[in-house]
Amino acid sequence: MHHEVKLIVPEINARVLTKQDMIIANPNCSTIQLVMVLAPLHQKYRAKRVLISTYQSVSGTGQKAVQQLNNEIKGVDGPMAYPHKIHKNALPHCDVFLDNGYTKEEMKLATEPHKIMDDSSFKISATAVRIPTEGGHSESVNLSFDKDFNLDDVRDLLSSTPGVTLEDDPSKNRYPMPVTAHNKDDVFVGRLRRDLSAPNSLNLWIVADNLRKGAATNAVQIAEHLLHLGLS
Fold it and tell me: Is the overall model pTM greater than 0.90, yes or no?
């Protein structure tokens, strides 16, 4: 969040990079998959409020957390990455708690999209939860817009967004899941439906491999962009 360091998701804001950028920041994994879907929708419908609940895999914490989960599945005692068991559990605790009651992860989700999209006109609130999956982060997102929308138009918009794959056919049990996003570079979105409790509001479900687009893939794409423009 340093003002002088650019926070980059290439599909959204690679245009701001210059040859003078000696340090370029890779955003938080959960932020990347959120803005990949939020940015095109905001551009067309103007978001007012964004509510996010994440369901984050243990690989986001690191190898020690993956080992804790696997040990608990096998009934083996071992080092603990979390203050509680994670197998058959859900921890509303991603990163450290801050004085405002939110975790550091939740505050990244609340602030990083504004910087990446160069727009702070919309409000964001997040709850981040760790779940016992080994890889892949999921997000339940509620968006309130200034403008009304047609669901078919939203589907067409997301289907044509580079780096985003629409999986939205509940009648055939087709929706994004961590197990199917594993080892893929795209961000997957589905379960699109109107929020029946509020005007101009949309519910959707976003999943991505947090070690691919959420980390390594995004960094590689930044490097590729620099090479392509001769900025390296």
Answer: yes
